[in-house]
Amino acid sequence: MKNILLQLVLLVILFFALWLGLSKIDWMELLNVNYITSKTQQKLGELILDQIKNSGEENHDPKVTLPLDSILTGICISNAIDRSQIQLHVIKSEEVNAFALPNHQLVIYSGLILETRIEAELSGVICHEIAHMELDHVMKKLIKEVGISVLISTTTGNSGSNLMGNILKTLSSTAYDRDLERDADIRAVDYLIRTNIDPIPFAQFLRRIPESKSAIDQHLTLLSTHPDSEERAAYIIEFVGDVHGEYQSILSPDTWKNLQHQLK
Amino acid sequence: MNTITQFYYSPNEYESEKASNSYLMSLIAVIAGLPFPIINLIATLAFYQGNRKGTYFVRWHCTQALLSQFSLLLMNSVAFWWSVSVLFGPENLSNSFIGYLITVFLFNLTEFVATIYSAINTRKGLHVKWWFYGDLTDMICSS
């Protein structure tokens, strides 16, 4: 019996020693994991963006892009996020939607900007999408929905436009897992508070969208992208709790009005 | 690691075949290419149940095959769910994860080689006793 126990202990020690020893090797560097991942994301991001640009024109008007860039930069600086790695794209569309693409590309439809009533609501949505990027949700969702082999085949040029269309649909109009969505919401609230932006309007925006669904039309894709809006608004408000900061806006009231005016 | 010793009696042809099959059953999932670690154990357990009332030689080797599958099930299950978590969940690819996969692969490979070696030798009527598992089987399996 004593001999068996000793052998068991030796077996366990051998297992953990081998694991510990092998973990000391920098496999990520050795197998070029980071390089391959980054190249795949870059290629995928470019392909999906091309698909978006085929369906809607990109808005390059500085009166639109500059205010949005100011909001984005303000959030990034306050949260120590590398602003240079995020590419912002404003697409002319009535759809109320915004989503993150691989390779840190943030797509905002003009319909969403028009639907937001104040800057803090839009900032909340931007923070939510940045959170998806920073938490590496985008690729995880694609791997889950589309499959790793299909994703690799798209980057090697073996993909048709139908497949890219499906990938775009996956990213823009289907929900993340409830847990991932919650993580992104909570992270977004953190980002907002650190930027001195009131997080409550973000929750109110989520709550308002389903209410106004019938008043607008089927373009409210954000609803289908992010289900359980009421529940999300509730836990955001609960998470914020009694935190009351001296909140401020990044844009001046005139700039915000001009931004919305430009998109009408 | 594995030692060939004299069994308490000389098994006949039928017993040798049955004992050899108990090891082959534990390879069934590898042959089928299934990723679920539980399949190996279920196959071995089913074979063990079928031979519970067999001769001592057959029971002894069924038990050794089953015990080795139990420990592999633990490490393979961790590897399986960790991989699922990396692909679909919050975990990220890391040196610890890759190190663990290689460790599990090496243990599986060792077990695979030992299993084939045991299947060949028990088929010849020889008694193969694994390090640790052999002593444990001696303790559990009564004549």
Descriptive key words:
heterodimer; A: 264 residues; mainly alpha; 2 domains; 3-stranded mixed beta sheet; 67% helix; 5% strand; globular; B: 143 residues; two-stranded antiparallel sheet; 2 strands; 6% strand; elongated
Explain what you see:
The complex is a heterodimer of chains A (264) and B (143). In chain A, helix 6 crosses helix 10 (178-194). The relative contact order of chain A is 0.13. Chain A has helices at 2-23, 27-30, 33-55, 62-78, 110-115, 119-134, 137-146, 148-155, 161-173, 178-194, 200-211, 221-225, 229-240, 253-263, and strands at residues 87-91, 98-101, 105-109. Chain A has 264 residues and is mainly α. Chain A starts with a helix and ends with a helix. Chain A is built from 14 helices and three strands. Chain A has two domains: 1-31; 32-263, no CATH class. By secondary structure, chain B is mainly α. Chain B has one domain (2-140). Chain B contains six helices and two strands. Chain B has a two-stranded antiparallel sheet with strand order 1-2. In chain B, helix 1 (13-25) runs parallel beside helix 4, helix 3 (38-50) runs antiparallel to helix 4 and helix 4 runs antiparallel to helix 5 (95-123). The A-B interface holds A 1, 3-4, 7-8, 10-11, 15, 18-28, 31, 33, 37, 135-136, 140, 143-144, 148, 179, 183 and B 71, 75, 87-90, 92-96, 98-100, 102-103, 106-107, 131-132, 135-136, 139.
Compact description:
The complex is a heterodimer of chains A (264) and B (143). Chain A has 14 helices and 3 strands.
Poorly predicted regions of chain A: 212-226
What structural class do helix, strand and pairing data of chain B support?
mainly alpha
Most extensive interface, residues per chain?
Answer: A-B, 30 and 23 residues
Q: From the alpha carbons, calculate the radius of gyration of chain A and give it in angstroms.
A: 22 Å
